[in-house]
Structures are given as C-alpha cells and as structure tokens.
Amino acid sequence: MDERRTNQAEIQKQMRAIGMKVALAMALLMSFGLSLTGNLMAERPPEIPMAAIVIGFLECFILSFAISFAIGLFVPMPKVNAALARKFHLQPRTLKTHFVESLASNLIYTPLITTAMVVFVYFTMMPDGHKPPFLPMFIHSQVVCLIVAQVLIMLFVPIILKFVLPKKL
Q: Which domain holds residue 160?
C-alpha cells in the first residue's frame, strides 16, 4: 500500500511540474502574441519615438505574462478539458477535440489579458489628444485578439505538449 501511495504521490508531483511548464509556456506564448498584436494594431502619432513603442510593448508583455501565468496556475485546464470531453463526447486526439479545448482555453485567457492590456494602454500610455473612443477600441481589440489567440493556441499547444509531456505517455 505504501508503494502505491508513493507512486501516486510521484505521479501527482510530475503532473504539477508538467502543469507548471505548460502554464509558463502558455503565458509566454499568449503574452508575446497578444502584446505584439496590440502593438501592431495601435494607431500612434508619428512623433512617438521607437524607444517608447518598445517600452510600451515590454510593459504590456509583462502585464499580460503575469495575468496569463496566474490563469495557468489557478485554472485547471486538464479538468476543464475532461469536463468538455464528457459533455461533448469528444474523442482524444481529434481535430474537433483540439478545437473545442483550444476555444475553451482562448475564452478563459484572452478576454482577461486583452481587457487588462487595453485598459492599461488607454489610461496610462495614450496621449489625451490621440485617444480614440474607448468602447470601439476595446471591442475591436477583443475580436482581433480572440482570433489571433485561437490560431496561436491551435498551432502551438500541440508543440508545447510534445516538449513537456513525458515520452512514456
């Protein structure tokens, strides 16, 4: 019985380590992708120096990384995915399953990250004379970021999992 508990404890420890690696990789991926997307969509006055643009990107990246990593630590995506599989009768390793799981991940991560970045940029970085109306900017950012994030998640999660999962699985 002790050996069984030891094995279960070891498996749980390995799963936590895998979860931490996936959370870190997802945070880097989502933060970089969404920060870059926001930066490329920004309408700036021509007199803004490149250094300010780079600093703005880095600030957004750090903010979104912190949010994304926290989500990755506190939202148990394997449990969410298992619940989705039961509810929608999903078969493992199919395109339909991958799409549904990535959409769920996207809907958890992206609105929070995008909201934080849009609010941060709008209220702290945009000069008053160059602020567009907030709501159209917010909605446009959400739509574009949801699309970009869905593509990123669909493409990169299998690669991330290939690197972090033990070869035995």
A: 2-164
- Diameter of the chain by CA atoms? 71
Domain presence at residue 107 = yes
Which residue shows structure tokens 């939202």?
75
pLDDT by 10s per residue, the chain, length 169 = 577 777 888 888 888 888 889 889 989 999 999 999 999 998 877 888 889 889 999 999 999 999 998 998 889 888 999 999 999 999 998 999 999 999 999 999 999 999 999 999 999 988 888 789 999 999 999 999 999 999 999 999 999 989 888 776 4
Total domains in the fold of the chain: 1
Please name the residue that has the structure tokens 């593509």: 151
CA distance linking residue 14 with residue 20, whole number of Å = 10
Query: Which distant-in-sequence residues (6+ apart) come within 8 Å of 75 by Cβ?
Result: 108
**106 in a domain, yes or no?**
yes
